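Input/output pair, single chain:
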Amino acid sequence: MSLFTILNNIVNHPFNKYNKAAAIARFVGWQIGSRLVPGDVIFEWVNNSKLVARTGEIVVTGNIYCGLLEFQDMGFLLHVLRERDIFVDIGANVGAYTILASAAIGASAYCFEPVPSTFRRLMTNIRLNALDNKVISLNMALGNARKQLLFSSDESGTSHVLADNEKTKNEITVNCSTLDDELKGDPFLIKIDVEGYETPVLEGAQHSLKNPNLCGVIIELNDSGQRYGFDEQIILQMMFDHGFKTYSYCPFERKLRILGGKNEYEGNTIFVKNIDRVLNRINKAPKFAVHGVSI
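Output:
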C-alpha cells in the first residue's frame, strides 16, 4: 500500500475528518517513534484499555491513527455491550475487539484465533489488560465440523483457510471445531472475521444464532468467500431466516440505519435482531473516550 493511500485512508476516516491535522500528527509520531525505539510499544486505548503495537501491525497501528480502525462496528460494540454480557470474537487476530469488549466494557468473552504466532500476540494483549478471568481464548479455527484445516500463516492479519489447490510457503495445519460445540453460555454479540470462511462458521453456529439473548452479529462480507465458491447471498438469507436485519451504525449520532443487504461501503455488516432492546442499550450507553473525544 502506497504512502498516499495510507494517508488518504487516515484523513478520510470518520473519526479524523474534522481533525485531519491531529491524525497526521499521530501517524508521523508513530513512524518516527517506532524507528527511534524499535520493538513492542504499549498503546493506551479506550477506557484505559491497552494494546501492544509493533511496526507493520495494521490491525493495531490503524487504531493509533484513527482511534477506532473499524469505526462503525467498534463504536456499535462499545455502545451496545454491557459488563454482564458474553461477547464472541471469531477470527480474533491480536484481539482488538476482545480488548474493547472485556477491558473497555468489562464483558466476558470467548475468542478464537487459529494461527499460533498470532494467538501468542492475542494472549499478550489479554494478559496486559489482566483479562485471564474474563476471556476464554482458544487457539483453533471454527467451521461446520470437528476436523483439521490447512491455513496460511501470515502476520499481516490476512491468514485464511487454504482453498482447494491454493499453495503458500507458510502453510500450517490447525484444529477446527464449531461454535455450538465450544460456546457455553448465552452470547449477546458475535464478531466474525474469517477471510471468506464465514459460511462454514455460521453453519456450525445454528444453535447459537437461535439463542434468544443474541442481539447482534458483526460479519466481514467483502466477497472473500468466492475463493471457496461461497455465495454471500446465502449468508444474508441464513441470517434473515434467524430474524436478523442488516444495519450500518453512526457512533457520533448513535443511530442505526437499516440496509437492504450487506453494507456496500464498509468491510463489515452489522446484523441485529431484537432491535428495540438494542436501541434502548445504545441510547442509555455511557460515553467512551478515544483520543480525547467522548462519543
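The CA atoms of residues 2 and 8 lie 10 Å apart. The radius of gyration is 18 Å.
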